[in-house]
Design goal:
Elements lengths: L2 H9 L8 H15 L29 H8 L9 E3 L5 E3 L6 H6 L4 E5 L8 E2 L4 E5 L2 H10 L3 H6 L5 H15 L5 H13 L27 H12 L5 H19 L5 H4 L2 E2 L6 E2 L2 H12 L4 E3 L6 E3 L6 E3 L9 H5 L11 E2 L2 H11 L12 E2 L6 E2 L6 E2 L2 H13 L15 H4 L11 H4 L13 H24 L15 H18 L6 H13 L13 H19 L1
Helix pairs in contact: 5-7, 18-19, 19-20, 19-21
C-alpha cells in the first residue's frame, strides 16, 4: 500500500484529522522509531549506505516495502576474504576489530541510532559509527523469522539485522577480548542500549540459516580493512606520530616495494590511481563526470517548513512573505530550469539576480543529473546507475583487475559523454600510463603539456599547408587547444584523410599510423608507438570520422 493510501486510511477515521504537515511528520516519526531510519530528507546526511548516495525519502506514491528496498540496496560481498599487501588471503572478521580501528587507524568509535550509518567511516572527521540499538533488531528477528516475510511486511530486513549483530559481536567487539572491554566502556560513558553488551545473537538465528554472507554492510567492512592496511593521516601532530609508527610497523611486516601495488583503484578516465575507494570515487565524480548540479529555488519561491508548517521566503527566510516582497527578488529574471555546475555559481546568481545578502540554506537545492548508464570494460556488464557502476568496478579492482584488462569504451549515452572532461579512452589508459608523461587530470605533467603544445602547433601548420593546396579545405572549425592527444590526433587524421582523398589516395592503416608518428615524433620510425597503433582506437576512428566524411562527400 502506498504512503498516501496509508495516510488516508489512518487519519480519515479521525473526527478532527491533523493538518497535512502534521500527518507527514507523524509518519516520519513512526518510521524513525520502529525501523530506525530517517525517511525525511531534512534529517539525512548526504552520504547514506554507500558513498555518493543521495537522501532516500518515503514518497507518497511509494509503499513502505519499496522505501526499505531503496534504503538498503544489496551488494553481495560474499565471505569477506580479501588480499593484503603481501598477497595473502585474509578473513576480515579476524582483522577489523575495534581495538585495531582505534590503535592502528587512529579512528574514534561513535554510536548511532540510524541503521544506515552502521560501520560508516568518515575519513575527514576520523570517526567510525556503529549501530548500538540491538534490542530493536532482536525484536524484529523474533517477529519475522522468515527472510522474505520481513521485507514484505515492511520490517527491517532480516539479513540487515543479522549482519549488524554479527559485525558487532564477531567482528568489531568479539567476546573475551580487549575490544569487548572497549564496548563496555563506550556503553557506560555514552548511554548506549545495554542490550548491545549481551552476546546472544546466535539465539536469533533460524536453524536453516547457515554461515552468514554479507549482502549489505560487507563493502564497509572492506573499506575499514583497507584503511587499516594503509591508515590516513589524522591532523598534523597525529600524522607525524602516525607516520613514525607506520614506518616502524612497515619495516617489520610489510614488503619494501609496496607503493605501486597499494594503488589498487585506477581511474577509468585518466592515468591516475588511488589507494582507497573513497579517493577514487571522489576523483572520478569531481574531475571527470559530475552530472549533478544546483537549481535556484527548485521547490518554489515560498518553502514550507517541516518544523512549523508555515511558509517562508526561499531567498531570505522571511516568514509568510507577501507577493510584493517576492517581486522584490526579481523572480521574472530567473531561469528556473538552469542548472549550475557549482554551488558558488548559484550563490553568485542569488546575490546578483535576487539581491540576497545572507545566503539561505541551499543544501536541498542540489539536483541529480540524468541516470548514468554504462558498460563494464572487464566483463561487459551493462550498468544502469553511477552507484551501481562504482560498486561493480570496485569489486573488480579488489580482485586484482587493472586497466590493462579493460576492453572497449564506457558506452555512455551521448548526453553523458558530452559531460565527460579531462579524459582519454579507457582502453588507452594502460599503454599511456607507461609513457614518459602519462595523462593525468589530477596533477598535469609539465612535460606532457609542453609536448602537447608542440604537437598542436605542428597540427596547425599542417592545416595551413593543406588549406593552401586545397581551397575547399579551409581552416579548422574548432579550437585545437585544451584537447587531449587522442582528441587532437583524431581531428588531425580526419583532416589528413580529407586532404588525401581529394588527391585520389586510397588510405591504409599504415598511412594513418605513419602520419600519427610524424605529428607526435617528427619521424615515421615504426618503433615509436602512438595511439593510432592501437587497433581498437584506429577502428573506432575509421568508423566515426571516415564514414562521416564519406556521407558528407556524397
Amino acid at each position: 500500500m502506498k504512503r498516501s493510501q496509508l495516510t488516508q486510511e489512518y487519519f480519515s477515521k479521525r473526527d478532527k484529522p491533523p493538518s497535512p504537515i502534521d500527518q507527514h511528520r507523524a509518519f516520519n516519526l513512526v518510521v524513525r522509531i520502529t525501523l530506525m531510519v530517517e525517511c525525511s530528507a531534512d534529517n539525512q546526511p548526504s552520504d547514506l549506505l554507500e558513498l555518493g548516495s543521495r537522501p532516500v525519502q518515503w514518497h507518497s506514491d511509494h509503499s513502505l516495502v519499496d522505501f526499505m528496498a531503496r534504503v538498503f540496496p544489496q551488494a553481495d560481498t560474499g565471505n569477506l576474504q580479501v588480499r593484503d599487501h603481501s598477497g595473502r588471503i585474509r578473513d576480515l572478521k579476524s582483522t577489523v576489530t575495534a581495538k585495531r580501528i582505534k590503535k592502528v587507524a587512529g579512528l574514534r568509535l561513535r554510536g548511532t541510532q540510524d541503521l544506515r550509518n552502521h560501520l560508516k567511516m568518515d575519513i575527514k572527521e576520523g570517526v567510525v559509527e556503529f549501530f548500538h540499538c540491538t534490542s530493536v533488531l532482536k525484536e524484529h528477528l523474533l517477529a519475522h523469522p522468515d527472510p522474505q516475510g520481513s521485507m514484505s511486511a515492511g520490517s527491517i530486513p532480516r539479513q540487515v539485522a543479522l549482519e549488524v549483530l554479527d559485525s558487532l559481536q564477531k567482528v568489531l567487539f568479539p567476546s573475551h577480548s580487549t575490544s569487548e572491554q572497549i564496548l563496555r566502556g563506550l556503553a557506560s560513558e555514552e548511554g548506549f542500549d545495554p542490550d548491545c553488551l549481551r552476546y546472544d545473537a546466535a539465539m536469533y538465528r533460524a536453524e536453516n540459516e547457515g554461515d552468514l554472507s554479507y549482502s549489505y554492510f560487507g563493502n564497509r567492512l572492506v573499506d575499514l580493512f583497507e584503511e587499516l592496511e594503509d591508515p590516513s593521516p589524522r591532523g598534523s601532530a597525529a600524522s607525524a606520530s602516525s607516520a613514525t609508527r607506520r614506518s616502524r610497523v612497515s619495516k617489520r611486516t610489510r614488503p619494501k616495494a609496496k607503493a605501486a601495488e597499494k594503488r589498487r583503484f585506477p581511474c577509468t578516465f585518466c592515468c591516475d590511481s588511488f589507494k582507497s575507494k573513497f579517493d577514487w570515487a571522489r576523483h572520478e565524480r569531481s574531475l571527470h563526470l559530475n552530472s549533478e548540479g544546483w537549481r535556484c529555488a527548485p521547490f518554489g519561491s515560498v518553502e514550507i517548513s517541516a518544523m512549523t508548517g508555515g511558509g517562508s521566503c526561499a531567498y531570505c527566510g522571511l516568514a509568510y512573505p507577501t507577493p510584493t516582497h517576492l517581486e522584490d527578488h526579481d523572480l521574472t529574471l530567473c531561469k528556473k530550469d538552469q542548472i549550475y555546475a557549482r554551488k558558488d555559481h548559484l550563490v553568485q546568481h542569488l546575490r546578483c539576480i535576487h539581491h540576497v545578502q545572507d545566503t539561505p540554506s541551499i543544501d536541498s537545492w542540489k539536483v541529480e543529473g540524468p541516470p548514468v548508464s554504462s558498460r563494464c570494460g572487464f566483463c561487459d556488464l551493462r550498468m544502469e546507475t553511477w552507484q551501481e557502476r562504482t560498486d561493480h568496478l570496485v569489486s573488480h579492482f579488489r580482485r586484482g583487475k587493472m586497466m590493462d584488462d579493460w576492453k572497449g569504451e564506457h558506452d555512455f549515452e551521448p548526453m553523458i559523454t558530452a559531460l565527460v572532461t579531462n579524459a582519454i579512452p579507457p582502453y588507452l589508459i594502460a599503454s599511456d600510463s607507461k609513457t614518459y608523461a602519462p595523462f593525468s587530470a589530477m596533477a598535469p605533467n609539465l612535460a606532457h603539456a609542453d609536448h602537447l603544445q608542440q604537437i598542436t602547433k605542428s597540427a596547425e601548420q599542417s592545416f595551413e599547408a593543406w588549406s593552401g593546396s586545397d581551397p575547399e579545405s579551409g581552416a579548422p572549425t574548432i579550437s585545437l587547444h585544451d584537447k587531449s592527444f587522442p582528441e587532437l590526433l583524431a581531428f588531425h587524421l580526419g583532416r589528413f584523410a580529407q586532404h588525401q582523398t581529394r588527391l585520389g589516395v586510397v588510405l591504409t592503416n599504415k598511412m594513418f599510423q605513419d602520419e600519427a608518428r610524424r605529428l607526435q615524433f617528427g619521424s615515421v620510425d615504426p618503433l615509436d608507438d602512438t595511439v593510432a597503433d592501437n587497433e581498437e582506437w584506429l577502428s573506432l576512428f575509421r568508423s566515426q570520422h571516415l564514414e562521416d566524411h564519406g556521407r558528407q562527400s556524397r
